[in-house]
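note to self: dont lose this again. the chain is below, predicted strucutre after it. 352 aa total, dont forget to put it in the shared folder this time
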Amino acid sequence: MKNILKGLGLGVVALALSLSLATNASAALTFTNLAVDSAAGDALTIGASNTTGTIALGVANTGGITIGNGATIKTISIGSGAAVNTINIGTGAAANVITIGSVTGAASMSLLVGTGNFALNGAATSTYTIGAATTTGTMTIGGTAGTGAVKLAESTGIQSISIGTVPAAETTAKTIVIGNANAASTSTTTIHAGTGGLNLGTSADARTIAIGTGAAVVQTLNVATGTAAHAIRIGDGIATATTAPLGTARVAAATVTVSGGFNYAADTGAADAAVVTLSPAITGPATGQMVSFKAVATNLTTTPTLNVNGSGAKTIVKRGAAALAASDILINGFYIVIYNGTQWQLINPTVN
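---
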């Protein structure tokens, strides 16, 4: 049979196959080598009348199955009919390696999906890489006119999310933009954090962190404006009670309003031994540090002391280095002192 078909050509092969398989439900044809060919404009159809059966190619094959591997331009369609198809590629329980598309020339690929959704999933420890070899191209997630939600790492598990990070040895200068800077847009950018905290620029690198530095526009910057008892620290180099802080801080505006007690606390010590505990605590104190307090008792000696946040009792003087007079500090009086590097200088003594 093989020799007869081989000698007669494709037309007889097609006829023989059609007759054999159509008249016998269990009929089978086996070929050592089979070539199915046609004229340039002919159509080759496999399983056109097979409605519920299975068409299998290369079930036990250890070689290769090639479809459309020629050098001519062609369209290869799989499951492109109007029926609801289930198309499986490499779904067997083996370590399959599947490659779709190429990076040659103007090659392109589109993955489309309807309302049935699109899922890219893997094993629990899978690694997903997108655009690893794209050096100057653009990767876009989310359409330019999209109104839906774009979600990243939205799960209940513990995750580490890195954006624009490079290994420590790299010096690549990345520019990361989050949010819409278009003045005509009403876009809102929100950054949340749990009890673990929110950190901005906390590494040991020199940098400039700019917030609300847009030019020629009026901006309202709110920091911890909720109704809770917030503790806000700006500019603090060393977090110890006895060492002066490092760095500088500048507040510049046409008018500055401080609402609440400024470096103020009630004296909790005794006569000639004032104790003031600011909250949050100051570091230092540093030269020029100003503190205000309500005295718990009248000074009886000329050398009263003040201890601020456990930094040690230091003598209170006035007018440079002059000793106080008795009753320069009166019970329930409010007083301002400035640290001169070794002593607290009383700015508003009661006795001239």
